Amino acid sequence: MRVIGVIRKSRRERVSREEFEELLRSAGYEVLAIVEQVREEHPRYNIGPGKLEEIKKLIEELKPDKVVFANRLTPSQAYNLWKELRIDIIDKWQLVLEIFEKRAHSKEAKLQVELANLQYELPLVKEAIRRIKMGDRAGFKGMGEYQVHQYFKHIRYRMGKIREELEKIRAEREIRRKKREEEGFVLVALAGYTNAGKSTLLNALTGESIEARNQMFTTLDTTTRRFKVNGKMLLITDTVGFIDNLPPFIVEAFHSTLEEIVKADIIVLVLDASEPWPEIRRKFFASLDVLRELKALDRPMIVALNKIDLISEEDAKEKALLLRELVNGRANLIDVVKISAKQKRLEELYSAIEKAIAISPKFQEFEITVRDPEKVGKVIAMIHSVGELLDIDYGEGARIRAYIQTGMIRHLTKLGVEVKRVA
């Protein structure tokens, strides 16, 4: 499908042409032209009337299938533009939702995308009803007055049903999460801007082969896997990527997925180090905005500058230094680390996770006294499965020092061994 893209920005706004074009390509569109304008928002058309005439001429000349705006359009602006241009008009968030529809595989992801689509359509239908009452017979999607009213009722009903289904899925996830909590697992959430390399990083840490492509919004389904850091077992979850000015209706629709970030013990915020500094800065603040909205900025955070294999060592060091200055006071920062998920250069990340574990109440040093010699092997195996064995003194049984998850204590006490926290 062939499209013309439109970007309007004021001098204060952050709008990336490269990102917009990448979104269009990710949705499968052929970009015929990009029209740009620097001005304040026009209340009727978003762009100015002069630029509107320019687009009319381009439509006559290039014969696109639709026009895509990089800005959020109000329902009245979308209608006014359609009336003038007589062609399908969508904005950035409809474009993002089209990509989401292509990427959604699980039942939960499909429900979340459908809910976001319905939330987006609701104000458009309200605008159609308002115009019908004013005597404007344009309708909505070619519908008449009765059909529009019925469609409005259908949207409200369907949104209610989807929320009920998502709540059931959320309750099931909460049961699994509580079980992990009881086991004492430290939960690590991968967060960050879309296409920063989160899925590649999860694969590098866990040895999995989750789909990871160089395109936007590859991951819509949460994936949780186990991995070890210096003998300590942790759980890591990949989450949906962020994007600049993520609207509330998408955050609300994907709340059960993004909740994995809120519940995490450690957040690893992944950024693409190969991009120019202004882009890294913009995407860092966009990610921070989402984390703030989720009320997750109090969580211990590691900022991971990924893809350092694509830049020089000096460039990576300079960007890490700039990020440390940028993060200062804005989040509960553990460290800024330089990594390459593709090449599995993760030493700095492992070290930072160790620092975060050291302040986590879930991993503590314990002294374990095993009086029954026959149980020593089983206790050591349990420690190796989730923690780190520090020292062992054999006698009649064994006296063991180890870092273990607090949830393991009840399993050890069931074996009849003594467990004592080391001060």
Automatic annotation (TrEMBL):
<feature type="binding site">
    <location>
        <begin position="238"/>
        <end position="241"/>
    </location>
    <ligand>
        <name>GTP</name>
    </ligand>
</feature>
<feature type="binding site">
    <location>
        <begin position="192"/>
        <end position="199"/>
    </location>
    <ligand>
        <name>GTP</name>
    </ligand>
</feature>
<feature type="binding site">
    <location>
        <position position="219"/>
    </location>
    <ligand>
        <name>Mg(2+)</name>
    </ligand>
</feature>
<dbReference type="InterPro" id="IPR016496">
    <property type="entry name" value="GTPase_HflX"/>
</dbReference>
<dbReference type="InterPro" id="IPR006073">
    <property type="entry name" value="GTP-bd"/>
</dbReference>
<keyword id="KW-0963">Cytoplasm</keyword>
<feature type="domain" description="Hflx-type G">
    <location>
        <begin position="186"/>
        <end position="361"/>
    </location>
</feature>
<comment type="similarity">
    <text>Belongs to the TRAFAC class OBG-HflX-like GTPase superfamily. HflX GTPase family.</text>
</comment>
<keyword id="KW-0479">Metal-binding</keyword>
<keyword id="KW-0460">Magnesium</keyword>
<feature type="binding site">
    <location>
        <position position="199"/>
    </location>
    <ligand>
        <name>Mg(2+)</name>
    </ligand>
</feature>
<protein>
    <recommendedName>
        <fullName>GTPase HflX</fullName>
    </recommendedName>
</protein>
<keyword id="KW-0342">GTP-binding</keyword>
<dbReference type="GO" id="GO:0003924">
    <property type="term" value="F:GTPase activity"/>
</dbReference>
<feature type="binding site">
    <location>
        <begin position="217"/>
        <end position="221"/>
    </location>
    <ligand>
        <name>GTP</name>
    </ligand>
</feature>
<dbReference type="InterPro" id="IPR025121">
    <property type="entry name" value="GTPase_HflX_N"/>
</dbReference>
<dbReference type="GO" id="GO:0046872">
    <property type="term" value="F:metal ion binding"/>
</dbReference>
<dbReference type="GO" id="GO:0043022">
    <property type="term" value="F:ribosome binding"/>
</dbReference>
<dbReference type="InterPro" id="IPR027417">
    <property type="entry name" value="P-loop_NTPase"/>
</dbReference>
<feature type="binding site">
    <location>
        <begin position="340"/>
        <end position="342"/>
    </location>
    <ligand>
        <name>GTP</name>
    </ligand>
</feature>
<comment type="function">
    <text>GTPase that associates with the 50S ribosomal subunit and may have a role during protein synthesis or ribosome biogenesis.</text>
</comment>
<dbReference type="InterPro" id="IPR030394">
    <property type="entry name" value="G_HFLX_dom"/>
</dbReference>
<dbReference type="GO" id="GO:0005737">
    <property type="term" value="C:cytoplasm"/>
</dbReference>
<keyword id="KW-0547">Nucleotide-binding</keyword>
<dbReference type="InterPro" id="IPR032305">
    <property type="entry name" value="GTP-bd_M"/>
</dbReference>
<dbReference type="Pfam" id="PF13167">
    <property type="entry name" value="GTP-bdg_N"/>
</dbReference>
<dbReference type="InterPro" id="IPR042108">
    <property type="entry name" value="GTPase_HflX_N_sf"/>
</dbReference>
<dbReference type="InterPro" id="IPR005225">
    <property type="entry name" value="Small_GTP-bd"/>
</dbReference>
<dbReference type="GO" id="GO:0005525">
    <property type="term" value="F:GTP binding"/>
</dbReference>
<dbReference type="Pfam" id="PF01926">
    <property type="entry name" value="MMR_HSR1"/>
</dbReference>
<feature type="binding site">
    <location>
        <begin position="306"/>
        <end position="309"/>
    </location>
    <ligand>
        <name>GTP</name>
    </ligand>
</feature>
<comment type="subunit">
    <text>Monomer. Associates with the 50S ribosomal subunit.</text>
</comment>
<dbReference type="Pfam" id="PF16360">
    <property type="entry name" value="GTP-bdg_M"/>
</dbReference>
